[in-house]
Structure formats: structure tokens, C-alpha cells
Amino acid sequence: MKKVKQSILRLLGNLLLKWAINLLCKTLKVEKVNKEVIDKLKEQNQNYVLAFWHSTMLLPWYVHRNENFAALTSLSKDGDLLARQLKSWNYKVVRGSSSKGGDVALGIMIDLAKSKYSVAITPDGPRGPVRKFKAGAVITAKKSGIPVVLAGVGFQKKRKLKSWDSFEVPKFFSKAKIVYSEPIFVNSELSYEETSEIIKKCEQILNELQDSALNL
Fold this sequence. Notes:
Helices cover about 45% and strands about 20% of the residues. It has about 220 residues and is α/β, with parallel strands linked by helices.
């Protein structure tokens, strides 16, 4: 009986969380800068890798719901919550991280990218270092032949949680901004050293976009 009660409470908690997140996101006043990049990719029926920092992920996940995206989430309990939310937004969820199931998860994401899914990745997730660009997004683009688009995100009013990344939760009715980069194509024949340089460049660009998105 105790386990049944716990299951019911967990279900109610999950439903309440989904409802609260959806309500919050609907109240945000979102400005999309360089959105024509995304529009053009859609017109060309071109899928892509979308990368944004872990601390800001709530807005891009919401903005790109119902858009034929696959998403990579960790195998942790926090990953469980995120996976449920993303599934409710019609993401195809793949579980894994750099520490557990990483190679397998990355392979699945590459296969999905080749199958015309766009791919959303937090390149400093799931445990940091903060705003340090790991290889997954660039490797997915390199091996699948699709471009990377980077997205900086800012909230005018927000709370920062006491997490490793100071995760940002916008306040209701806050102004928000998402700033997209130009598409970055990664040649499949690049060497390890050349690919590493692309990863560093993506980190630099994404940090610049992130800083620019804070000007609301």
C-alpha cells in the first residue's frame, strides 16, 4: 500500500510540474534574434544541431517543442524529470552522458541526425564545467553532415538555483531573448586537431551570444 501511495504522489507531482512549467513558459515575452536562420533551415528541410548552455535550457527546449527534435538527457534523477518534460513536448529522448552511456547515446544521436531529426544538446551538461563546450554537438554535426546552430539565452527577471550551473528559472511574464548564430558546418574530413579548433570556436561564439542575450 505504501508503494502505491508513493507512486500516486509521484504521478501527481510530475503532472503538477509539467503544468507549472508550461504555464510559466507561456507567460514569457520572447524576442528571437536572427530567427531567419532557423526559418531558412526549415524552408530547406535542413535539420541541424542546436546547442545552448545547460543553465539556460528551459527556453530553447520550450521554443523548439513539436519540431522533430531529438534530445540528449542524462541518466540521473534530474534527467528523468527532464526526459518526461521533453517527451510531453514531443522530443525523441535519448538517455546518456559523458560519464555513463555517452558513446552509445552519441551514436544514437548521430543516427537520428542522419534520419532527419534535428538534435538539441547542452554542450556543458550534465555536470559542467560551466560554459565549457564538450565535443558532442560538433561530433554529431561532423559525422551526420548537418550544421550546428548556437543559441544564447537571456531572461530579464529570473531566479538562480543553487546548482552546479546556477540554473536560471525566469519569473512569470519576464522578457526573454534567444539569439541564434549562423549555421556552422563541420567538414567530415577534418583532423582531430582541426575539429578541436571548431569546438573551441563554438565555445567562444556561444559565450558571446550568451552575453549579448542578456541585453534586454
